[in-house]
Amino acid sequence: MKCSDLLQQDCGVSKAALQHPFLQACSDGSIRPSQFNTWLEQDFNFVNAFAKFAEKVRAVAPHPHARVYIDGSAALAEELTWFKEKLKERNLIIGGPLHATCAAYIDLLAQLEQQSYPVQAVAFWLIEYVYYKAWNLASPVAEPYREFADRWGNADFSKYVDILEQQADKAMQDADQKEQESIKEAAMAILVVEQRFWQMAMEAA
């Protein structure tokens, strides 16, 4: 089993996570500020939790893989600073209340922290993959949202995601049957909650 196989478990779920109407609305400029701002506030909350998850994965990763997570953690720290700047520009709350959908995603991260490294490696790759692929497919994105698509949909981020995929594929080679089932379940859970995250923003008043 490889990472690419996980995206074929339910193609409808994968498509819903990667090509959601929220992204299309960003692309054509029809997104309402309240919708985008909801996504931005909640995504900051999620990335803050994801940065902590990255540290957990790095701690259990085999030595040859650890360097990538160290670099990823540094990038996430910089990203949180960038998020704060974007939130301030829009006069939005930094670290405000969690929407139920965001809270559910953070709870999923907490559950993944209890899993073995192969499960965590695949989960980490898939979360970053969705960031890359969703914004890449939506590009070009209308102003003033283009910088967000450019941040995650660019070639350099694609290379980073590819490295994560290679490491996750390697980790899965050593996964036993129980771990493989856990990997499939985790992948499906991530894709479902990613779709719900976009939908959360789309439904904002």
UniProtKB/TrEMBL annotation:
<protein>
    <submittedName>
        <fullName>G8765 protein</fullName>
    </submittedName>
</protein>
<dbReference type="Pfam" id="PF03070">
    <property type="entry name" value="TENA_THI-4"/>
</dbReference>
<dbReference type="InterPro" id="IPR050967">
    <property type="entry name" value="Thiamine_Salvage_TenA"/>
</dbReference>
<dbReference type="InterPro" id="IPR026285">
    <property type="entry name" value="TenA_E"/>
</dbReference>
<dbReference type="InterPro" id="IPR004305">
    <property type="entry name" value="Thiaminase-2/PQQC"/>
</dbReference>
<dbReference type="InterPro" id="IPR016084">
    <property type="entry name" value="Haem_Oase-like_multi-hlx"/>
</dbReference>
<feature type="domain" description="Thiaminase-2/PQQC">
    <location>
        <begin position="15"/>
        <end position="203"/>
    </location>
</feature>
